[in-house]
Design a protein that fits this description.
Length: 162
């Protein structure tokens, strides 16, 4: 594999490697990811009213997402440990049966934070499921995606369909 290959996580032998970012310039970088949970309207109402037996679902999910973003390199083998400068997790819903989780992660450094944002919404979604599974086991975690990213040599990305 040459250095110009888009598959940068492979060495000359085709084996996995962590990319060397030591010569990359530090830039401000941001990434936003979103995940959607589909559930019964009754379950969403219990979450919004704070009536789940395990406690405040969104508060716990928010903390779980923040903690997960900070530990992304422990989960994803080729991710670099990154000093994050900010993590914001927000929740919204469609008023019926969908809960939306959105995480924005920021850093100034030589590599991006897309994986940290995706990890944050994934952990938050799993936490919502865990806290609500007694009320509903057939919730669906769906549509986990990168909404946008800024910074770095590849420039900005903004999903067109979100």
């Amino acid at each position: 594999m040459s250095d110009s290959s888009p598959l940068t996580h492979f060495n000359e032998q085709g084996r996995a490697r962590m990319v060397d970012i030591s010569d990359k310039p530090e830039t401000k970088r941001t990434a936003t990811a979103r995940s959607t949970l589909l559930m019964k309207s009754e379950t969403l109402a219990l979450i919004k009213q704070g009536k789940m037996k395990k406690g405040d679902v969104l508060a716990v999910a928010q903390v779980a997402g923040i903690m997960a973003a900070k530990k992304t390199s422990d989960w994803i083998p080729m991710c670099h440990p990154i000093a994050l400068s900010g993590i914001d997790i927000q929740f919204a819903d469609n008023g019926s049966n969908e809960l939306y989780i959105e995480a924005t992660v920021r850093t100034t450094g030589p590599t991006g934070v897309e994986m940290e944002a995706l990890t944050a919404v994934s952990a938050a979604a799993l936490t919502v499921y865990d806290m609500c599974k007694a009320a509903e086991k057939d919730m669906i975690i769906s549509s986990t995606l990168l909404v946008m990213k800024t910074g770095g040599k590849n420039g900005d990305f903004h999903r067109q369909d979100s």
